[in-house]
Amino acid sequence: MLVFKNTFRDGVGFDAILVTLALGYLVLFSAFPLVYNLVMSFQEVDLFSLASFDRPFVGLDNYEDVLTRTEASSIFFNTVKFVGISVVAQLVVGFALAMFFQLDFPLNTWLRGLFLAGWIMPALVVGAVWSWIFAGDFGVLNYMLQALGITDAKIFWLSNPDVALYSVIIANIWLGVPFNMILLSVGLAGIPEDVYEAAQLDGASRIQRFFTITLPMMRAQLGAVISLGVIFTLQQFDLFAALTQGGPANSSNVFQYWSWQLSFQYYEIGVGSVISVLMILFVVFVAAIYVRSTRHEQVM
Amino acid sequence: MTSQIQLRNIEKHYGAYHALRDISLDIPEGAFVALVGPSGCGKSTLLRTIAGLEGISSGEMIIGDQDVTKLAPRERDLAMVFQSYALYPHMTVRRNLSYAMRLKRRPKAEIAEAVDQIAKITGLSELLDRYPRELSGGQRQRVAMGRAIIRQPRAFLFDEPLSNLDAALRVHMRSEIRQLHNRIGATSVYVTHDQIEAMTMADTVVVMRAGLIEQVGAPLDLYDRPANKFVAGFIGSPAMNFVDGRISGDGGSVELDLAGAPSLALARPATPGQRVSVGLRPEHLEVGAQGNSLTLPVALVERTGASSYVLTDTPSKILVCTAGRVGDDVGQIIVSIAPENIHLFDAETGIALR
Ligand SMILES: Nc1ncnc2c1ncn2[C@@H]1O[C@H](COP(=O)(O)OP(=O)(O)OP(=O)(O)O)[C@@H](O)[C@H]1O
Ligand SMILES: [Mg+2]
């Protein structure tokens, strides 16, 4: 309490209070759930033992259990596809749009604003909208494809096992493009015009300027967008809940949704925790790569 | 000597703003041409149109014997040194220097040799592996120069390359650039708003105002025979004094609109009765009564040690610059000027009377 008194009198120890608050927050809301999750992954947890800490320790049994399930490998590859395709497509489309909005044309800011709509809408709402678009019998997408003569038969976007995952990926790309666009726009705007002019006089064509000036000078932003994209995509839960619930027959299921299903639908909480632990390890790995890549960044 | 850069009736509009008006200019091969003028007169715009970074509204541009009016900057084979240097921040000095050659896919050995040679010329040999952000302003300036030289372009374009340096370094780089030019001999167009820089470095000075070329000439020509009042006031430091006056009845002298209507004898007769603006350079006004003299009330005396500056208490202030020392207590000063140093300009048009 002395610290508080001093703080109010002359500001002494104010920084200490701020640090304590931030640290307390981290311990309570980040570290504790993480550790608790880790602990549960080594325990046998069911509905009845949920309320107590004192649960049987089962070693790596949960890990063995979940990794040997028949659906595990297909869900793993679904997750890889979901993350890989989403991140790459978001990056490419976001970069293209960011470059497009660098141009000076009427309605530029207005149009750019529209693109942000996807960013401010809750993913669950976006999921609902896309489920109408994808709807097999009365969906907008099928109507358009047929009207344009691209397909004759209806595509059952959400109930065809071969297509369901890609439908979620499409919705997720749409959801992630604005974030990519904004971050990359900031990076593009930070490249001085005269550097491009110098490159032009040095004889660089438009394509050469892109590869020798734009891309290398965007390294930090690209690194951020890719690693954050991976992390956000691994967190994408709402779209699965709104569109396919991982179905049909796990054909569009991914780790984050499966983990939730195991823990909160089937109450195999120990097994569900295993998946979260594995995902956390992967995310930490991605974050580490990102931090390493930015540490040697050439800042102007 | 053949013309390296020819500009024919160049016009440039930015929307409604008329930035360049009927610019025609011949720049001989190997010349060092300075573009000077006050801020906003269109110097940078003209340079950037030569580089191709700005399109022109009409006119044509010939470099060597090629019409480049419609060519992109990269097809013009010119090198430019920017005021901001515009170095590639993500490349080391070595890679900055070799960028153009790498784009052309020159052999590695050739590039390495060229970089070493340029680094020696520009004194960058020790700094080749640094990034631009690790260099001082003067060193960045050298990299920008080196990056231009290594290309052996048809001409160099400089846009106020020294304006971000401190005064001492600016004077040093000024002579270095000029020596470099003497050695390489490539055509150079040099934009500056500093007329001292223009006078000391260039073979030919182009004075611009409001998008127009006011006069083109050798530095001392502009100083000795300014075409109009604007050039007279712009070239020379400190600036020329202007006093209104009228040519006497016999045309042999000019009466100044000062207390007592003093009159100065002219070297050549002028139109009797004409209203004129009389230009007197501060350094041409000598203290003491020798022939053509004026007695002027003193407002202020400034001394730098080497010389004294006397500001007179007249309706249009007259500055006198003298090598001698002037006492504090002078209430008035007598100055004289040689008739051939008196410049006359038409009071209406400002055009020099010769
Ligand atoms: N992109 C542009 N759009 C509209 N007007 C412009 C543009 N670029 C330059 N101008 C105008 O053209 C005029 C000439 O500009 P310029 O940059 O050539 O001046 P400058 O002689 O180089 O001046 P300084 O010595 O300050 O660099 C200025 O009045 C400027 O406002
Ligand atoms: Mg300028």
TrEMBL record, chain A:
Keywords, alphabetical: Cell membrane, Membrane, Transmembrane, Transmembrane helix, Transport
Domain ABC transmembrane type-1: 76-290
Places the protein is found: Cell membrane
Membrane topology, record value: Multi-pass membrane protein
CDD domains reported in the protein's UniProt record: TM_PBP2
Xref: PROSITE patterns: ABC_TM1 (PS50928)
InterPro entries: MetI-like (IPR000515), MetI-like_sf (IPR035906)
Chain segments annotated as transmembrane: 12-36, 82-101, 113-135, 164-189, 210-234, 269-291
Protein family according to the UniProt entry: Belongs to the binding-protein-dependent transport system permease family.
Protein name: Sugar ABC transporter permease
TrEMBL record, chain B:
Similarity remark: Belongs to the ABC transporter superfamily.
Name of this protein: Sn-glycerol-3-phosphate ABC transporter ATP-binding protein UgpC
UniProt xrefs under CDD domains: ABC_MalK_N (cd03301)
Record key words, sorted: ATP-binding, Nucleotide-binding, Transport
Keyword Transcription found: no
SUPFAM superfamilies named in the record: MOP-like, P-loop containing nucleoside triphosphate hydrolases
Residues of the ABC transporter domain: 5-235
GO MF term set: ATP binding
Natural source organism: Marivivens donghaensis
Domain of life: Bacteria
PROSITE patterns reported for this sequence: ABC_TRANSPORTER_1, ABC_TRANSPORTER_2
One Pfam family hit: ABC_tran
